[in-house]
Structure formats: structure tokens, C-alpha cells
Design a protein that fits this description.
The complex is a heterodimer. Helix content of chain A is 78%, strand content 0%. By secondary structure, chain A is mainly α. In chain B, strand 4 and strand 5 form a beta hairpin. Helices cover 36% and strands 24% of the residues of chain B. Chain B is of the alpha/beta class. Classes of the chains: A mainly alpha, B alpha/beta. At the A-B interface, helix 7 and helix 8 of A face strand 6, helix 2 and helix 5 of B.
Chain lengths: 260, 259
């Protein structure tokens, strides 16, 4: 009963907004030339589902996202571990990080075009750069939040340095890395679509632009909604994975620890 | 077997240096149960960290079987006060206890047996595949004790292990330690701020002064074995000894820091 109620509350907001949007376009409160009725947008969207070119665009966007996030993870996690486990390395790199991190990734678009042209490489480069930072910073935080008692325990029981890293330090940083991955996933998707929009690499971004240029406003909206749905879905995927991997973590525990 | 000789520890340098331990010397013989008590903040934990090789002393040395300790030795098992932080939450009870056994020359079966025996000896057989956070605080500390026992140490160092459990659990754990100590024939050095606990458990009690720490007094505890929570604590010798230590600690403590 309460469950159905909760479900209804969750979706009631969405339904109301959609209904209002529909009404606004139909009554020309919002000019339907720029804001076609939402029902038509959804019909267009459904129509797209049967088209190969649509799925190819989705595939291209996901390809850029996956490669960008993948490269970012391959670089950011080891770098974060390396910097985070040594005070000397941390001090040596801090200024460099503070300088590079605030650079908006889109400011690197000209550079990307210059080096990689307008294809997949540019998109992956931008997504990697953008996704690198949140993940690296999270990993760094994770390294700095290792419980000293856990490390002492490992030392006193004779675990070697490498084992302390793999058995104690890395597992306890997993919650941070997981959060970093989730943030970086969103960022990588944003940059993939941005590259498609601005540079014209193959993917949903380019299709959105093409729809706009061709006056297919419904299609433009439909594709925009698709990018949102992809972001939502990916985020859900990561949240789910996190819950599985971090069963032991206080934020995910279903069983409460006994009283004292 | 364990000998602390002229141990001193100073934190920091120059004007801001704090002298935690001034000069501490004592011996622990094989099979003994030695308790160390002192006022709070008297450097008990620092002392134990130096003895376990986790911390380098500024002066003096610690000898184990005649050899100087310069890193955590294999013959030492350690039980921390902060059981919930000392056990790794992503590992089950079994995995936590097996982790320190990686470098012991044991076959897979022997390792499993050591783990199961240790879990049995602390009465947690049914919980071996649980995660630490699924257990109560007292049970978690029993897991930590089992981990130290499975490591087959010659000497067990315990740093205020029962300071954060309730009184009833504490009494149970005290008796548990006395039992496993006999079962495993292990030497125990037990640090506590609880005078009753020290007298109840120990063969000897080392009374420390407040920082900079020195040994105030070493007392032989002449109470009948086995100890019993009710009967032992009723004995006039017990009451007398705890009063004696209490006075020693209270009197030497400056009034303004007394709690």
C-alpha cells in the first residue's frame, strides 16, 4: 500500500509537468514552433527506436563515453594511489593539480581538433580529460582517509608493504573510488555529447544538431531526451553496482551492527 | 622472555618536545600474565606501541628472547582497543583471522584449522562466516582476540581491549582471556586503566606514574587460581591490593588533572 503510494508520488510530479507542457504547446502559450507538443516528441522518439541510424548514434555516444571513462579510470586511479600514498609526491603535485583541474574541458576543444581531428579520438580525449579529475581527486581522498588502526593492525601482524596496499589500503578506498566513478561517468557522457555537438563527431550530439538545422524540432527534443535517459540509466547502473560491491560499507549496510 | 630496558619516548623536537615516557624498565617471564596500570594519559599505549615494534623508542630498548625489537616481530600478537577499526569490514570473520597467517609456513588445511580452533576458543563458531559489523561489540573484540591467537604468538599484547564494552561483557571477556591464555599457553601483557581488572587478571601488576612515565611499583598478585568474578573480588587480599594501587595512582596525580 505504502509502496504504491510512494511510487505514485514519485511519478505524479513527472506526469503533471508533462501534462502542463503539452497544454502550453497546444494552447500556444509556448510557441509550438519551438516547443512542439510533448506527445509528438514522444511519438517521434518511439519512431526512432525502429531506426538503425538512431541506434548507431546511441552506440557512438556510448563508445565515446566508455572509452573516455575507461582511459580516465586507467590513469586516475593509479595516479591517485601514487600521489595519495606519499606526502612528498602529494606536495610535489599539488600546485600542478590545482592549476590543471579548473581548466574547463571544453576549452581544450581547439587543442583536441588540432591534434586528433574531428573523429572519435577528439571525443575520447575530451571525455578522458574531464573524467580524470573527479576520479583522481576521489582516489586521493580515499588514500588520505585510511584508518591508521587498520594499517597498524596490518603492520603488527607482519603484512608486507604490498599486501598492506592490496588488502587494506585499496579496499578501504573503494567507497571513494566508486563515488568518483559515478561522478566521472556523468562527466564523460557530458563531454562525449559536447564533442559531438561542437566538433561534429558521430553520435547523438551531432544528430541533435542536424535535427535543429533541418527544422525537425520534435526530433531534436526526442534525441535530447534520449541523452538524458542514457545519463540516468548509467547513473542507476553505477549506484546498483556500488551497492553490491560495498555491502560492507556503513552507507550500504542492510543489517545494523548490534548494540555496542 | 620480554625485557624492557630504560625505555624512553619523546615526541617532537626542540622546545615543543613532549616527554611521554621517561624511563621504564621491567621484565615479563614466559607464561606470565602481566598487567600495566596507570593514570589516564600516562603513555601506556605509547609503551605498548614501542614493545610491538610499531614505534621506535627514543631511548632504551626492548628485547624479545634476547633479541632487540626493531619492527613488529612474528612472535607478538596484538589486540587493539578499537576493535571495530582493527577488523576489516570487507572481510568475514574467517578472512580477518586468516589474513595474518599468510606468512606462516602452513598448509591450507592447517591454516583453516588454526582459524577454526581460534574461533571455537572464543565461542564464535556459529559466526565464522559473518562480517564483523554484523556482530556486537563484545563479539567483535572476541574476533580480534581469536585473530591474535590464531597467529600463534608467544606473547599477546593487549591495549585496553575492554575499555569500550559494557560491564557485563567486560567480565565475560576477562574470563575468556584467562581461559584462552591457559589453553594456548601464551604470555600476556595487558594494559588497562581499570585497577580492578588489572588485579583480577594479573600475576603481576606494574603501576606506572603519570607522564613522563616511570615505573612506580611492581606488585605480585597472590590470589588463588582460578579467578572468579564473585569470589576473587570478595577476598580481602583483592580489596586491599586494589586500594593500594588506587592510592598510589591518585596520590601521584596532580589535583587539577584528576578526573
Amino acid at each position: 500500500m505504502t509502496r504504491t503510494l510512494g511510487w505514485a508520488q514519485t511519478w505524479a510530479g513527472v506526469v503533471v509537468v508533462l501534462a502542463l507542457a503539452e497544454l502550453a504547446s497546444r494552447t500556444e502559450v509556448l510557441p509550438s514552433r519551438y516547443f512542439p507538443p510533448i506527445s509528438q516528441t514522444f511519438l517521434t522518439l518511439v519512431g526512432q527506436l525502429g531506426r538503425g541510424s538512431f541506434w548507431a548514434a546511441v552506440g557512438h555516444t556510448l563508445e565515446g563515453w566508455a572509452l573516455g571513462l575507461g582511459f580516465a579510470a586507467l590513469l586516475a586511479i593509479p595516479v591517485g594511489v601514487a600521489i595519495g600514498t606519499s606526502r612528498l609526491r602529494y606536495r610535489a603535485c599539488r600546485v600542478l593539480i590545482e592549476f590543471l583541474r579548473p581548466i574547463p574541458s571544453v576549452a581544450l576543444i581547439p587543442l583536441a581538433i588540432l591534434i586528433y581531428g574531428v573523429g572519435l579520438e577528439s571525443k575520447v580525449f575530451l571525455a578522458t580529460f574531464a573524467a580524470f579529475w573527479p576520479l583522481m581527486i576521489q582516489t586521493l581522498y580515499g588514500m588520505q582517509d585510511i584508518d591508521p588502526v587498520a594499517v597498524d593492525t596490518a603492520r603488527v601482524f607482519g603484512l608486507r608493504r604490498s599486501e598492506r596496499l592490496t588488502k587494506v589500503v585499496l579496499p578501504s578506498a573503494v567507497p571513494y573510488v566508486a563515488t568518483g566513478l559515478r561522478i566521472s561517468s556523468t562527466v564523460a557522457l557530458i563531454l562525449a555529447v559536447t564533442a559531438e555537438l561542437v566538433i561534429g563527431s558521430a553520435g547523438l550530439g551531432r544528430e541533435i544538431n542536424a535535427a535543429r538545422a533541418g527544422g525537425a524540432t520534435e526530433l531534436m527534443y526526442a534525441l535530447t531526451i534520449v541523452t538524458g535517459l542514457i545519463g540516468w540509466g548509467l547513473n542507476g547502473l553505477f549506484t546498483r553496482a556500488e551497492r553490491r560491491v560495498l555491502r560492507w560499507h556503513p552507507s550500504q549496510r542492510t543489517v545494523e551492527g548490534g548494540a555496542l | 622472555m620480554l625485557e624492557v630496558m630504560g625505555l624512553g619516548k619523546t615526541y617532537g623536537e626542540g622546545e615543543r618536545a613532549t616527554r611521554a615516557i621517561a624511563d621504564v624498565s621491567f621484565k615479563v617471564d614466559e607464561g606470565e600474565f602481566v598487567c600495566v596500570v596507570g593514570p589516564s594519559g600516562c603513555g601506556k599505549t605509547t609503551l605498548l606501541r614501542c614493545m610491538s615494534g610499531l614505534l621506535q623508542p627514543s631511548a632504551g630498548r626492548v628485547l624479545l628472547d634476547g633479541r632487540q625489537i626493531d619492527g613488529p616481530p612474528e612472535q607478538v600478537g596484538f589486540v587493539f582497543q578499537e576493535y571495530s577499526r582493527s577488523l576489516l569490514p570487507w572481510m568475514s570473520v574467517r578472512e580477518n583471522i586468516a589474513l595474518p597467517l599468510r606468512h606462516k609456513r602452513l598448509t591450507k588445511n592447517e591454516r583453516a584449522r588454526h582459524v577454526e580452533e581460534a574461533v571455537g576458543s572464543v565461542g564464535l563458531t556459529g559466526f565464522i562466516d559473518h562480517y564483523p559489523w554484523e556482530l556486537s561489540g563484545g563479539m567483535q573484540q572476541r574476533v580480534a582476540i581469536a585473530r591474535a591467537l590464531a597467529y600463534q604468538p608467544e606473547i599477546l599484547l593487549m591495549d585496553e581491549p575492554f575499555a569500550s564494552v559494557d560491564a557485563q561483557t567486560r567480565a565475560d571477556l576477562e574470563d575468556l582471556v584467562l581461559r584462552v591464555r591457559t589453553a594456548y599457553g601464551v604470555t600476556v601483557l595487558f594494559v588497562t586503566h581499570d585497577i580492578d581488572e588489572a588485579v583480577y587478571l594479573g600475576d603481576r601488576v606494574i603501576v606506572l606514574t603519570s607522564a613522563p612515565t616511570q615505573v612506580h611499583e611492581i606488585l605480585e598478585v597472590d590470589l588463588p587460581e582460578p579467578r572468579d568474578q564473585v569470589e576473587t573480588k570478595e577476598l580481602p587480599e583483592f580489596t586491599h591490593m586494589r586500594a593500594h594501587i588506587f592510592r598510589a595512582i591518585k596520590r601521584r596525580q596532580p589535583a587539577e588533572t584528576a578526573t
